[in-house]
Design goal:
heterodimer; A: 576 residues; 6-stranded mixed β-sheet; 4-stranded antiparallel β-sheet; 20 helices; 12 strands; 62% helix; elongated; B: 630 residues; alpha/beta; ABC transporter transmembrane region fold; 19 helices; 16 strands; ABC_transporter-like_ATP-bd (chain B); ABC transporter ATP-binding protein (chain B); transmembrane helix (chain B); ATP-binding (chain B); ABC1_TM_sf (chain B)
């Protein structure tokens, strides 16, 4: 895990070096201070040498100020290093996700990908910062202060040598036992969030069925579960503080007793005793901080492994088999004995032995029940998924021969579940073609029957769409998506149920435009409404992953029972 | 998880005092515990201060006088006694710390639990219009980041503030007793430290605000682009997107580096200023001892106190941002809790009824299957009207925002058992009509009656109980198939559930699921096809068995062939009920008793399918529009 995340720290390696080095300087100076103080008390006071006292005091102040400077520098560079590290990971994840194929994205849910790029990254980033600040500082401090204490009194230091391992062991035990309890708590936390989310999404259902009391009860269970788990986890974690205090106080008492005895018999001086106590506080505070880091790191381990999962995901659609400079010649499409399943471990194929030949410029309608794999079929054309068996040819060549960008520029697809992004309408349309002129944009929108409603907005093409394009209705959104796809000037255009929310008359106009003006484009239309496909050159009837029939509207009415049933189900009343 | 890396949203709270006192109100629900906490924090801090004080008498009274004298058990006895006393006091301090940290766990978690409960419960009672103006993400973040920052502030902040305050005051008093001159010196240094904290704090707040904005921008972009990842792929837009994100990410890095620098720098500055303080105290103290105005034990105690004095101040200043963020978060939470809930001035209720010998209706506690509206009148009498499902609109005008009128003078009636269909383009007001029937929204003008009673007089819960809706977007809940169907009627028996599933033609596919009716559905039923989910929603409405049914594009996601298969089930479901149907596909409404064609919020045509076809109006156009290309 560390191996995979380490490269992200490379860019800011200098900050990662400066930060600990300055921390080292800071600590080394810091631990000298109590010794000087002891000198003042033990040398300056007995000899009543005011100038010695002020001189030593002045040195101490200078040292503290220098240490302050070092501390400030280390604060700066540890911040640079850790925020840089986080930013590199975020960018790395984002780049990786951009390379994901559809099946990679399907594997993680969108929500989980978002959490990984946001919360998980900041958890890891925070743990990293604590690591380079405190995990460096504490051991240096520990060793340094112990050495200094040894230098003051080699026998008294035994107290440290007993106390430190005991405390370390206790803190470690607390950390270890807490971890699984924290994980359990996190699961409860997720469960509670999920229940809130579900409730918010379904609030209309809740209200329509008058189920708020029921929902409140459900939430109470999730909420109480979380509380119980959280109390369980914190019970142990909160022992940190008393354990820490117990050790510190024990040390002080022991030092006072043994140290006091030494002073009495003349083996130690008073100032040294005070200095010793000062080291106890220093060391133990560092140990406590270290235990906090330890817990944070353990907790962030879960986040780190979630990040690494994203990074390690094998991308299944790549340019690897592509031949340079292969251009898509025309808009012909050919399925040769294509079988497909989303998951190679699954038993049944979603598509079974598909053979289909589409001429360039042809209009193809695809119809079939929900779940008959219509969308799956067309998604193989721009290589959104790779076939399991057989092959798909575009322009006479296997789709895997093309560079992905070349292929997808030639094959424009309007997805069933489509999105517009925040920004203006024009910015969204330019996704299709960055250099599109206003005339081209207007033309595409006219073709998609979107121009009129766009112009009805006060800002026209500069109308700002909120996140997810919330300002436009479902039908309007679909028409904008069609226009966006058209702007790519593709050889093949695939409309996957893209006019379902468009009324029949507008739908008809869109199709009429294609028939009259864009004869060169191969158009593949998936639809529920028979009217959306009945004027196609050929119609493909899909049933349970197989092509059940192919033909024109009239032919299919004669030959395909399924087609006839669909037709009749949509024709009721017409004959009356 | 309250990880420290969680973005803190929002900067400054508006009214600190009010929010604080409200949080205290929640904390005080566990009054006994909280008072005990205060007590133990007090004991713990005092023990800490007092224990340190012992260094002075130990050195002055027990160690220094014995220097150079023969060590006898007799002579060491007072020293040992003193040490044991000191140890005892420290032990009490540890015990008190243990007790208050453990008690605080309960108080903190209990408080958060109560806040979350209030928040969730209020959300259930808010009107639908609230959810129109607030996104799910926004409301979710009340539960996640806002409650998280509050958790941090409560579980760490409260006890830390208390103990810090007590420690500072206690230490100050003892320092004054030990040496007023040195105390003045320390207080002066403290003022300097406070000034620095204030300066850094101010900068830090400004940078934190910038960081917040940058986090918002980057995270928003991440969310949006990952949501639309498939579109990015289809348009091969990966490189552009990476570039855009690079800019946002870099902005975030810079802002975060600055913000964290200011947060980080506090510790070394405070720590080392404490050393400056320490050095000055040692020097000045030594000078005082030399001039005979102070003893050596006092210096020892005093030096230890310089640290116990400044440490809590550093801690508080570090907590300051967290506390501010928590207060701002709490304020946002309270805003939701304070939002105006859905009002209900209705007084007509739905009760089980039975017919008396004379044919009149009376209320009964039995489940008779016969329902009646119980209508208490001003003169003290109560009338019972049988629940039939007669719905009428009289000149209804409605607007969501008082600006754009969505429905304009709509009048219509649905007699019990009739099927009324609404047809029209998106935005014509079809869904609005159904939202008015179940009072998700209230009419602006005109009135709607249900069995002759103005629906404003009917208690909302009872009104909605008498209606069942199947919506365009099916929402299912995490749980088994059985539980999801039962959502329509919580006390439905298994037989009723299965009967409802059969009615909706869902029984067949449910039996083919891995665990049949006990198959778990997760993530809004994502393991089912759209059509199957829709069938479950229909079954859910069927089990509720209400006299009025609203189908809002209920079958739009089902292909027509499947729809034809379930139509029988739908017919059975619709039989004997008043049904309002909104449909996109005209083929699904031709059986309706009356079809209303809506345009711009007005009914422009009404009649049966045959009538409307005859009329050659808009409906005819729409209908034949399907075939104009033949």
């Amino acid at each position: 895990m560390i191996k995979q995340l380490a490269p992200f720290a490379r860019k800011y390696w200098w900050a990662m070096v400066i930060a600990p080095v300055t921390i080292l300087c800071e600590v080394l100076i810091e631990i000298r201070i109590p010794v000087l103080m002891a000198a003042i008390v033990d040398k300056g006071i007995p000899s009543r040498d005011i100038s010695y006292v002020t001189r030593t005091g002045g040195i101490m102040v200078m040292m503290a100020l220098f240490s302050l400077l070092m501390g400030t520098v280390s604060a700066r560079f540890s911040s640079v290093a850790s925020m840089g590290f986080g930013s590199e990971i975020r960018a790395g994840l984002f780049r990786k996700v951009q390379e994901y194929s559809f099946s990679n994205v399907d594997k993680f849910s969108t929500a989980s990908l978002v959490t990984r790029l946001t919360t998980d990254v900041s958890n890891v980033q925070m743990a990293f910062m604590m690591l380079i600040r405190i995990a460096v500082r504490a051991p240096i401090m520990l060793v340094g202060a112990t050495v200094m204490a040894y230098y003051i009194n080699s026998r008294l230091v035994t107290i440290f040598l007993v106390a430190i391992p005991v405390l370390a062991l206790m803190l470690f035990t607390i950390g270890i036992t807490t971890f699984p309890k924290f994980q359990a708590m996190l699961r409860k936390y997720d469960a509670m969030n999920a229940s809130v989310q579900e409730n918010l999404i379904s609030i209309r259902v809740v209200k329509a069925f008058v189920r708020s009391a029921h929902e409140k009860k459900k939430f109470k269970n999730a909420n109480d579960d979380l509380m119980a788990a959280s109390i369980k986890a914190e019970r142990i974690l909160q022992l940190n503080m008393p354990v820490m205090l117990l050790t510190m106080y024990s040390c002080i008492v022991a030092i006072m007793w043994f140290g006091g005895n030494m002073i009495i018999v003349g083996g130690m001086k008073t100032g040294e005793l005070i200095g010793f106590i000062s080291y106890v506080t220093q060391i133990l505070i560092q140990l406590m901080l270290l235990s906090m880091v330890f817990i944070q790191v353990i907790i962030s381990r879960a986040s780190a492994s979630r990040i690494v999962e994203v990074l390690n995901e094998k991308i299944d659609i790549t340019d690897d088999g592509a031949k340079e400079e292969t251009k898509v010649r025309d808009g012909s499409v050919r399925f040769e004995d294509v079988s497909f399943r989303y998951n190679r471990d699954a038993q049944d194929n979603i598509l079974k032995h598909i053979n289909l030949n589409i001429q360039s410029g042809e209009t193809i309608g695809i119809i079939g029940a929900t779940g008959s794999a219509k969308s799956t079929l067309v998604q193989l054309i721009p290589r959104l998924y790779d076939v399991t068996e057989g092959r798909v040819l575009v322009g006479g060549r296997d789709v895997r021969d093309y560079k992905i960008k070349e292929l997808r520029d030639a094959v424009s697809m309007v997805l069933q579940k489509n999105v517009l992004f925040s920004g203006t309408i024009k910015e969204n349309l330019k996704w299709g073609n960055e250099n599109a002129t206003d005339d081209q944009i207007t033309e595409a929108c006219k073709a998609a029957q979107a121009h009129d409603f766009v112009m009805s907005f006060p800002d026209g093409y500069d109308t700002d769409l909120g996140q997810g394009g919330v300002n436009v209705s479902g039908g309007q959104k679909q028409r904008l998506c069609i226009a966006r796809a058209l702007l790519k000037n593709p050889k093949i255009l695939i409309l996957d149920d893209s006019t379902s929310a468009v009324d029949t008359a507008t739908d008809a106009k869109i199709r009429a435009y294609f028939r009259e003006n864009r004869k060169d484009i191969t158009t593949i239309v998936i639809a529920q409404r028979i009217t959306s496909v009945c004027d196609s050159d050929r119609i493909v009837v899909m049933n349970e992953g197989e092509i059940s029939a192919v033909g024109t509207h009239e032919e299919l009415l004669q030959t395909s029972e399924i087609y006839r049933e669909v037709y009749e189900s949509q024709q009721k009343g017409v004959a009356d | 998880m309250p990880g420290p890396g969680r973005p803190r949203t929002g900067a400054k709270p508006k009214s600190i005092r009010k929010t604080l006192s409200r949080i205290m109100g929640y904390i005080f629900r566990q009054k006994t515990r909280f008072i005990l906490i205060i007590l133990f924090v007090f004991i713990g801090s005092c023990a800490n201060v007092a224990g340190t004080y012992f260094i002075k008498p130990l050195i002055n009274g027990c160690i220094v006088p014995l220097i150079g004298k023969p060590v006898t058990a007799q002579a060491l006895l007072p020293f040992l006694k003193m040490i044991l006393l000191m140890g005892g006091i420290y032990l009490i301090g540890v015990l008190a710390t243990f007790l208050y940290t453990q008690l605080m766990i309960k108080v903190a978690n209990g408080t958060l639990n109560a806040v979350r409960t209030d928040l969730f419960n209020r959300l259930q009672d808010l009107p639908i219009s609230y959810f129109d103006t607030h996104t799910h993400g926004e409301l979710m973040s009340r539960f996640t980041s806002d409650v998280d920052t509050l958790r941090e502030a409560i579980s760490m902040g409260v006890t830390q503030l208390l103990s810090s305050a007590i420690t500072v005051v206690g230490t100050f008093v003892i320092m004054l007793v030990l040496s007023p001159i040195l105390t003045v010196l320390i207080v002066l240094m403290l003022v300097v430290m406070m000034l620095i904290i204030k300066k850094i704090g101010g900068n830090s707040a400004a940078y934190f605000k910038k960081q917040q904005k940058a986090i918002g921008a980057a995270n928003g972009y991440i969310e949006e682009l990952i949501e639309g990842q498939k579109v990015v792929k289809v348009f091969s837009h990966e490189d552009e997107v990476k570039k855009e994100f690079g800019v946002l990410n870099n902005n975030l890095r810079q802002a975060a580096t600055n913000a964290n620098f200011y947060a980080n720098v506090l510790m070394p500055i405070m720590g080392n200023l404490t050393y400056v303080n320490y050095a000055m105290t040692a020097t000045a103290g030594a000078a005082l001892v030399i001039t005979g105005r102070m003893d050596i034990g006092s210096i020892a105690s005093f030096l230890q106190y310089t640290r116990t004095f400044s440490q809590p101040i550093t801690q508080i200043s570090q907590q300051f941002n967290v506390i501010l963020a928590a207060l701002a978060g709490a304020e946002r939470i309270f805003e939701v809790i304070d939002a105006e809930p859905e009002t209900d001035e209705g007084y007509v209720t739905l009760v089980n009824a039975k017919t008396d010998a004379d044919g009149s209706l009376t209320e009964t506690s039995e489940r008779t299957g016969l329902w009646a509206w119980k209508h208490p009148h001003g003169d003290g009498t109560t009338t019972y009207t049988q629940l039939n499902g007669d719905v009428r609109f009289n000149d209804v005008t409605f607007s969501y925002d008082d600006k754009k009128t969505v429905l304009h003078d709509v009048s219509l009636y649905a007699k019990p058992g009739q099927e009324i269909a609404f047809v029209g383009s998106t935005g014509a007001g079809k869904t609005t009509i159904t939202n008015l029937i179940n009072r998700f929204y209230d009419v602006n003008e005109g009135k709607i009656t249900y069995d002759g009673i103005n629906i404003k007089k009917i208690k909302k819960d009872d009104l909605r109980r008498s209606l069942a809706m199947v919506l365009q977007d099916t929402h299912l809940f995490t749980g088994t198939v059985r539980e999801n169907i039962r959502y329509g009627k919580l006390d439905a028996t298994d037989e009723e559930v299965i009967a409802a599933a059969k009615l909706a033609n869902a029984d067949y596919f449910i039996r083919h699921l891995p665990q049949g009716y006990d198959t778990m559905l997760t993530g809004d039923g994502s393991n089912l096809s759209q059509g199957q989910r829709q069938l479950l929603a229909i079954a859910r409405a069927a089990v509720a068995n209400p006299p009025v049914l609203i189908l809002d594009e209920a079958t739009s996601s089902i292909d027509t062939r499947t729809e034809a298969l379930i139509e029988k089930g739908m017919d059975k479901l619709m039989n004997g009920r008043t049904v309002f149907v909104i449909a996109h596909r005209l083929s699904t409404v031709h059986n309706a008793d009356a079809i209303m064609v809506l345009e711009n919020g007005e009914i422009i045509e009404r009649g049966s399918h045959g009538d409307l076809i005859q009329e050659h109006g808009k409906y005819y156009q729409l209908y034949t529009g399907q075939f104009e290309l033949d």
